[in-house]
Design goal:
This protein is of the alpha+beta class and about 150 residues long. The protein has three helices and seven strands; from the N terminus they run βααββββββα. A seven-stranded antiparallel β-sheet has the order 1-7-6-5-4-3-2. It is globular and about 45 Å long.
Length: about 150
């Protein structure tokens, strides 16, 4: 059984795909007001919002537990609306040796498709695949959509 894995999920959103990309890439600190039941705080530690190499921390509630992660932005492609982040500290790394989150937004007229990719390596075979984190990301996507089509 391999300890490395990759989860991919797609979700259509009705709000503007550019807005969605901007929030995740350049304004993640707005997330606590968009989905306060999930995200309590997002702070920048190094660099600037929306720049490769920037480091931020997220305080969030996952499966009823308060958690913290610190991430670094590894890649931003404005043309493709793609953001790749690596988790470098925090609760997720208690179970995973590595954890990468990539979001990509495809915009075609009124159709906006958000793709979430989680690439990971578990510390051991008893660690579950991170399906609950993917579910969290998809629910956060729905919150962003609802917030922006009001």
């Amino acid at each position: 059984m391999s300890l490395k894995g990759k989860l991919v999920s797609e979700i259509n959103i009705k709000c503007d795909g550019d807005v969605f990309h901007e929030i995740l890439g350049h304004k993640p600190h707005h997330m606590s007001s968009i989905c306060p039941d999930k995200i309590q705080n997002v702070n920048i530690h190094e660099g600037e919002w929306g720049s490769v190499g920037s480091v931020s921390s997220w305080n969030f509630t996952h499966d009823g537990k308060e958690k913290v992660v610190k991430e670094i932005v590894e890649e931003i492609d404005e043309e493709k609306k793609l953001i790749k982040k690596k988790i470098i500290e925090g609760d997720i790394l208690e179970d995973y040796k590595s954890f990468y989150i990539t979001t990509h937004v495809e915009t075609k007229g009124e159709n906006n498709l958000v793709t979430w990719i989680i690439e990971y390596e578990k510390k051991n075979s008893n660690v579950p695949d991170p399906h609950t984190y993917m579910e969290f990301a998809l629910n956060m996507t729905k919150d962003i959509e609802t917030h922006h089509i009001k």
